[in-house]
Write a structure and sequence with these properties.
Blueprint: H1 6-14, H2 16-27, H3 31-34, H4 38-62, H5 65-104
Length: 105
């Protein structure tokens, strides 16, 4: 996942791998989505896969480069915060796994 700039992240997010990861993460947590039939879920996912890449490409093309440059420091701050959060969460998981393993030994 590229995090060097907002446009590169958006390009990744609009790609098949990025879009699938983001869509699965977001919509699978919605109760309304879970209540749908399998066919309805397929239609919604197909629409997401078609519409989001087009919207992202439009956004990348219409927003001036100067705007992306202005947003870059905020983007880097957000990326850094997410990295710190993931590090903290992964250390918590490792700590809990270690506790369980020690109990079983």
């Amino acid at each position: 996942m590229p995090t060097d700039s907002i446009p590169s992240f958006l390009g990744w997010a609009a790609s098949s791998a990025g879009l699938a990861a983001i869509a699965a993460f977001l919509i699978e947590r919605l109760g309304a989505f879970q209540a749908l039939s399998s066919k309805q879920k397929q239609i919604i996912v197909a629409c997401i896969i078609v519409v989001i890449p087009q919207a992202v490409l439009f956004l990348i093309g219409i927003v001036p480069a100067a705007t992306w440059a202005t947003l870059q420091p905020y983007w880097q701050s957000l990326v850094t915060s997410v990295v710190v959060l993931v590090t903290l969460l992964s250390s918590e998981v490792a700590h809990r796994v270690d506790k369980v393993v020690r109990k079983e030994l």
